[in-house]
Amino acid sequence: MNFELSSEQKEIKDLAFKFAKNEMLPHAAHYDEKGELPFDILKKAWELGLVNTCIPVEFGGTGFSTLDSILITESLSYGCLGMNTAIMANDLALLPIVIGGNDEQKKRFLTPFTESYKMAAFCLTEPGNGSDAAGIKTTIKDEGDHYLVNGQKMWITNAGFADLFTVYGTYDSGLKHKGISAIVIEKDTPGIEIGKPEKKMGHSCSDTRSVTFKNVKVPKENLLGKLGDGWKIAMKTLDHSRPMVAASAVGGAQCSFDYAAKYSTERNQFGKPLSGHQGIQFMLAEMAMNIEAARLLVYKSAWLLDQGQKNTQLASSAKAFSADIFMKVATDAVQIYGGYGYSREYPVEKLMRDAKLIQIYEGTSQIQRLVIAKEVISTL
Ligand code: CAA
Fold first, then answer.
1. CATH number, domain at 310?
2. Which domain holds residue 237?
3. Is-contact 75 140, C-beta < 8 A?
4. In the structure, which protein residues have their CB atom closer than 6 angstroms to any atom of ligand 1?
5. Whose CA is nearest to atom 6 of ligand 1?
6. How far is the CA of 196 from the centre of ligand 1 (A)?
7. Catalytic annotation, pick one of 33, 221, 362, 375
8. Is residue 23 classed as helix, strand or coil in its secondary structure?
9. Ligand 1, atom 37: closest residue by C-alpha
10. How many angstroms separate the CA atoms of 332 and 257, rounded?
11. Is the pTM value of this prediction over 0.85?
């Protein structure tokens, strides 16, 4: 067993970390306050090859492994969780094409993302169906020479700026998950209505909206796989993307820890630095211990995929564990800062707000436990 990253992986991680510290972190509070997408920063990340890491070399991508991708995600999240969400949402939307598309579709839909900076949106969740993804109501009807898409999607990251939407709908709701299909819809297709930006607790600079499809005619060649293949495509996509979300939690937790640890050496109470008090030392020790455990779990969940092995259980374990750790670490970081931690003038309250979403999106912490339990029980 070798815990050492390759020299190439160290370089990738270093590049992304330097970008996060120099280009993202100094602007994170500003864009959080404004609730605005930092388009220039995202474009710079794209120019460095840190965006759309899932695109294979044959289609102009970097050909990064899953482990490479999560090293980037972990580093970028150190800079800003909201900006990372905008970056990561591209992979979430493009992965179904990588997983379920044919070569013609990959060339047509993925290659433009390697030629200029564009955004994409993954459209699974609906107003009435979040955790129960198999119950989605959006319909994809075969109309002979095209498909007709009707329905509403909710909490869609990048929706206001996306060139491409990867949309899930059912062609027969009686078939439950077996009726779900995945289709790519380009932004200028008539019948797409984009909602207003949602005002959120955290990840404020990322764009989140509803998307409504009203009698949207989509060419037949945009369907990924066959009608009914959408569920497996969605689940496999989540097996890839959940380690990335988990890595973002590790990056955010590390950032929270670094702020809190530094502050604890600078602030004196009762005649010595906070770090000299055992109560604070125990908190710091707990944080460091949990972050490292989360990091190892996340790396393994990605490494399994790179070995061609099923990672469903570990992807969910990594996502649930890291999200919960990030929430705890960020909350404790605020605690160590005391009154200052609760102020917007200091960075840790943003991290605490950002942490909350990781326990919710791409499958709540409860759904991850459900997946883990199903996997564990199925092997008995
Ligand atoms: N790979 C392949 N097949 C899988 C699979 C996987 N990882 N997971 C499940 N399946 C298969 C099962 O084997 C089963 O197959 P059969 O047809 O042979 O029986 C089938 O799929 C149905 O599985 P379940 O019985 O487990 O389905 P379910 O309806 O009970 O529950 C769930 C599934 C895991 C709870 C699923 O609904 C789920 O993951 N929900 C959460 C949805 C989610 O994560 N949404 C996030 C949206 S993205 C986001 O947040 C956006 C953003 O902008 C960041």
1. 1.20.140.10
2. 231-378
3. no
4. 89, 92, 122, 124-125, 131-134, 157, 177, 231-232, 235-236, 238-239, 312, 361-363, 367, 370-371, 374
5. 235
6. 28
7. 362
8. helix
9. 133
10. 9
11. yes
Measured from the Cα of 155, ligand 1's closest atom is: 53
Same domain, 114 and 176: no
Spell out the per-residue pLDDT of the chain, length 380, in tens: 889 999 999 999 999 999 999 999 999 999 999 999 999 999 999 999 999 999 999 999 999 999 999 999 999 999 999 999 999 999 999 999 999 999 999 999 999 999 999 999 999 999 999 999 999 999 999 999 999 999 999 999 999 999 999 999 999 999 999 999 999 999 999 999 999 999 999 999 999 999 999 999 999 999 999 999 999 999 999 999 999 999 999 999 999 999 999 999 999 999 999 999 999 999 999 999 999 999 999 999 999 999 999 999 999 999 999 999 999 999 999 999 999 999 999 999 999 999 999 999 999 999 999 999 999 999 89
The helix/strand count (H/E) of the chain reads as 11, 10
Based on the fold, state whether residues 242 and 351 are members of the same structural domain. Answer: yes
Q: Which amino acid is at 173?
A: S
- Angstrom distances, CA of residue 12 to CA of 41, 58, 127, 165: 18, 20, 38, 29
